Amino acid sequence: MVSREHKRAALHEKLQLLRAVTHSHALNKTSILRDASKYIEELKKKVDKLNQEIACTQSSIRDKALPDVTVETLQRGFLINVSSVKSYPGLLVSVLEAFDQLGLSVVQARAACTDTFHLEVVGGDVIEAMDAHVVKQAVLHAIKACSRSNEK
Question: CA-based angle 18:20:26, to the nearest 5?
């Protein structure tokens, strides 16, 4: 008999604690549990929203980590600048391979690829139909492919 009273008192104490944690004003067990269930659903929605915000922020950070690429049209070729706060193994090779695939020869180049990455290239022998946008897209594609392969 004493054991039942202890269990009942412990259950009542736990329900009161649950009532306080969930900010419920209910007095009976069913209402307290219903309020607790609603509170848990609200918390789940908040967690989902926060996870979406984290994913967006991480995506934004990843995009900012990608190198900045500028391409200027010269009289007989292009001046291409690539700079990034992060260097990836094989990044220089990937960019140079992109030039090769475009049929763009490297006339002059300066590169630094230790912790950061900076590349300045003067490319010549251009196909007439090629414009700066095509070159920039090819370089960005090579960089993204390289960064993806290094993430794996």
Answer: 80
Instruction: For residue 118, give every residue at least 6 positions away whose Cβ sits within 8 Å of its Cβ, in sequence order, or none.
Output: 81, 82, 83, 84, 110, 111, 112
Tell me, rounded to whole angstroms, the distance of Cα 26 from its chain centroid. 44
Q: Output the six-digit token pair for 52.
A: 């979406």
In a 13 Å sphere around the CA of 102, the CA atoms on its Cβ side amount to 30
Tens digits of residue pLDDT in 70-124: 888 887 788 899 888 777 788 888 888 888 888 888 888 888 887 788 888 888 7
Residue-level pLDDT at 60: 64
What is the distance between the terminal CA atoms of the chain, rounded to a whole angstrom? Answer: 63
The answer to whether residues 65 and 85 touch, using CB atoms and an 8 Å cutoff, is yes
Answer yes or no: pTM beyond 0.70. Answer: no
Proportion of the chain in helix, strand, coil states, percent, rounded to 5:
60, 20, 20
